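Sample entry (275 residues):
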Amino acid sequence: MIAVRKLLSLSPQHCARKASQTLAVLEARARDGDYSAGPWLSELAHALSGADWIEPPLASLCVSIIGDMQQAGCEPDGLNYTRSINRLRRGLEAFAGVSPADWDFSQPLGLGLDGRARAVFPGMMAYLEDIRSPFNVGSAFRTADAFGLAGIVLSDFCPSPEHPRAERSAMGASAIVPWRRGDLSQLSSMGEAFALELRGQALDEFSFPERGVVILGSEELGVSPEALSLCKRRVSIPMLGAKGSLNVGVAFGILLYAWRLDLLRRGVVPIAPAG
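Predicted structure, serialized as tokens:
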């Protein structure tokens, strides 16, 4: 590791960038249970807290880290230690002008992806029609896993969930949520088809089917007329803002939460998948 005195001899932005890079390495080690860099972290926090270029929120964080490390005798609690490194690293990155992207974020501590642990509503399905963004596809899989969706069918024009950008936003969910390619002709086998679209029945008044498939349309054009013709109903999220619309991934999450809640209130419970 670079010596703290060496770091502080650099220009402020160079120091912040180098320190954040070192902290990224220490954070990765901490996630694996290695907290041996506690003394170095404490020394860095001392040095930064007295630097004239450090902004007040970061200076306060450094003082907090110093106190925590003194109390722990440089044998820190794992989660607090890791969180302190993460907050300091992200603060230094922001000072250096480095903006993290979604895929830079590590998986939260303590979370594994074991498909056998999933509980699903067997009748809940989704059809992604011509969604173009790999990030939105990955987000849909992560949301589907969270709310017990049984599976996803993708039109031919959707990016694959195995696309690198989709995998980044799915955070592993695309490996455990069942999916397949399919066209509109397959909707009839999934129960009632309904569309998440504008000018539909308000979400809080909508009675969701126990067995059905929700259609999500293109980010630009929405659900196609062909798909709408197969839907008996459409549901909309009431909006109070001037914009009048939401990102498709956000809207999907709101809908799945409402669908799940509606089923639970009617006594329908999720089950663990076979195997």
